[in-house]
Amino acid sequence: MKKMLSVLLTAVLALSALVLPASAGEETLSFAAASDLHYNQPRAALEGEIDDPVYWYANRRAAMEDESGFIIDEFLAQCAADDTVEFVLIAGDMADNGRRLIEEHLDVAEKFRRFEQSTGKQIYVIDGNHDMGNDSACDAAKFKEVYAEFGYDEALTVDGESCSYTADVGGKYRLIALDSCDPSKSTEDGMTPARVSWVLSQAKQAKTDGKYPILMMHHNLLDHLPAQRIVSHDFIIRSHLATASLFADAGIRMVISGHEHCSDAAVHTSALGGRIYDFAVTSLSMYPLQYRYFTLTDREIAYEARTVSHIDTDALTAAVDGYTPRQLEAMNADLNAYAKGFLKKGVEYRLSLSLTPEKMGIDENALYGKFVMKLVDRLTGIAAAPYYGEDSVSALAARYGIDLPQTDYANPWDLATELVSWHYAGEEHFDLDSDEVTLLLKTVAVIARAELSGEDPAALTAAADALNADGAADALIARAGALLEGISPAERFAVAALSPFLYEFAYDADGVNDNNGAVPGYGEDELSARAEYLLDAFRALFERIAKYLSLIFGYLSR
What we know:
Layout: H1 2-18, E1 29-34, H2 68-81, E2 87-90, H3 102-119, E3 122-125, H4 140-146, H5 148-152, E4 157-158, E5 165-169, E6 173-178, H6 193-208, E7 212-217, H7 228-231, H8 240-249, E8 254-257, E9 264-269, E10 275-280, E11 290-296, E12 300-307, H9 313-319, H10 325-333, H11 335-354, H12 357-360, H13 369-382, H14 393-399, H15 412-425, H16 435-451, H17 457-467, H18 474-484, H19 489-506, E13 517-520, H20 525-556
Parallel strand pairs: 1-2, 2-3, 6-7, 7-8, 8-10
Antiparallel strand pairs: 1-11, 4-5, 5-6, 9-10, 11-12, 12-13
Helix pairs in contact: 1-20, 2-3, 10-11, 11-15, 15-19, 16-18, 16-19, 17-19, 18-19
């Protein structure tokens, strides 16, 4: 067995050497990366219909549309002022209405042009799903024309079938800008075998040329939510793990993506031990108003989240009428806190309009259909109720024998949108024992007892099992049972129905710091890392084989 391991280890080292370009001295490369700028031409005056003294003009996208151009200006100003920022990457969705309003693209391109002319720093872009499409005002050819100065003029290769291209950045690195969009659909990825092959061929060429390949794409390569391929399938490429393995084994160590509007870092290790990190970048024009700053050496890829901390409100009010002194005072005091309030109110507005059986696509004839409809009907009514005081959630809870913990959250909407905001900002920290999860589970139990306690227990159990066929809600159901000292079929069903939301926004257990950290670089430490990974994998495999052989021989010797 030792001899076999030695042979395998030798093979691993040989294979690893093939994926690494020759390195000639240490180089430090630093750059900024942003995504989903979603520029909107500002309106002449604010309009809105939300019942809120500050965020009455918030929108369903929860993006600061009227402020977007001024946020972009400040982002570029920060990049210009930082001498260590050598260039800037933009991972798509420059313009919010880019498919139909070419004027938005022209405005963004002009901002980029002024930045390049004043700083000498290069901007590299790739398209997003909002930017271009077939039979649109901006198609692939028009996109390449408008943004010619921002990657395409400097390109080594440009894919004739898409907006993909490659360009050298720094002495040892090559950018592979991948068009991941489907030009005929609004959000879905357009990844095809041909596009995967194109990336692999460009990575191979980069190695031949002694370059480390960096991939930039709009759609996510890895999961940035639990089961993202299921709960948010339009935001991640199809066959993502198989593709990630191919890219990792081709020598691509880092990917910069957007689209999901979250700040998240995830890692995937291929069967051959190749590691690839997907750094999702949040939307620049919505909370937390962040972009990423990277420093690359052979030894490590260091990264940090940077925030747009203020904007020129004088220029904003000169362009847009209707801002109140209270709004401007809040923006000037803490723009990020203002953006969080805007996001929470926008998400609440969107969910309040979308939490209907029709909008959710609920079939009332489905096994769980009528139960979900009952929960939704009650949820939309209770979500705005205060947690304490007259006609409160706690008063209703007491009626059903549930004691809610003390909380500073105003109402269930406040709690739910807090979870959403943490997902966008990264570093989700709401584990099963957290006050937030406890409060949410008990709130759901209140609704279940109020609406479903009279339903057939067997039918509720069957419906819960149908929703939880993969066992994803088991941990939440167990936690709810511990909190409630037992769990009824109605509560079991309600928690199973809630679990996709909670898992989507509350957990992040991949072991990679989302916003600030460092991961292994492209350098020669990859050799030992691959060897160690594969040696551990083979050791575990042989231990399992030995265990089964022992069981078989033990059985035969009886």
